[in-house]
Amino acid sequence: MFKLLITKKFLKTSGLTLLVAVGAATGIGAGIAAGVSSHSEKLETIALILSTRNNPYFAAVANGVNSVAVNNKKYKVQILDSQDDQQKEIENVNNAISQGVKGIIINVVNSETAWNSSLAAAYRNNIPIIAVDRGVNNATAGAVKQTIASDNVAASKSLAQWFISNYNFSYNEGVFHLQGVAGAQAANDRSKGFLEGLGGPYAVEQRGDFNRATAQQVTQNTLPSQGNNFSLIFADNDQMALGAINAITTSNKTVSTKKPFERVIGNNYYVLGFDGDADALNAIKEDKMVATVAQQPKLMGEIAFNSMVSLLNGETIDEIKAADTVIVSKENVDEYL
Fold first, then answer.
1. How does the average pLDDT of the chain come out, rounded?
2. Per UniProt, which keywords does this protein have (predicted)?
3. Going by C-beta distance under 8 Å and a sequence separation of 6 or more, which residues neighbour residue 212?
4. Does position 120 have pLDDT exceeding 80, yes or no?
């Protein structure tokens, strides 16, 4: 299995730089053209369809694609935002098909429904598909040419075990799980893995949809009624973890990173995330968050574009590419900032 190594460079260079293109000129939604040059009209198009651009993680995926596409002499990239809306994703896929794109790189909104709702049509039109970060379930065998993702089950399980070991924590102290978007494979896998590592059930579960503002509101609503039932918050991504931290502080509660674990019922809470976003790394450094699992979204984007070009050139590519992850805490956060 192919493995990708995390480096400080990849995490530091995951910001998004994109060139805005007028949707009316392309006919593909409110797209963003990446790698546009003076001869871009002569280039064939590869569509990059993101579940949302309103998340630094997926912005970094786009930046990775853009960073290699800009120098390609044969293909350009059209970046489309599904806004975490399956209907918008269907529109984006259908528009890409109608425009005659040569390939689709996609981070799906819902792993369970994406195939039947839209991607099967791309397959019927002989458009190769590469999935990034989230798999596409129920797809025709061989239709998704490559899936690039972290092992979310193993990574989240390791995070739970790390916290238990390093903080002398037990699930009996209560865990509040902030869930990602319903049907997203990454959310399902992270929930499963953390639960396996925890060794017991979640005390509370609420859906934050991978969104910071949503998670903040959900946490604010949960603290008064169920805040005594948990002391640790595990969020399926860093944006939700940061939203939970905001909710804790604005509710006049305490965010703790103190070792060993110390519970003040209904007052102090520990927070864990997943992704390795820059804001989360800064929160860890400032003792506002315990730890996160760092991924490599920019590198995933680079690999996705290069794999698609190789595929279009008639080369064979690996069906699965697994990206290594690392737990980032106060002890090693400076290596990734």
1. 90
2. Signal
3. 239, 240, 242, 243, 246
4. yes
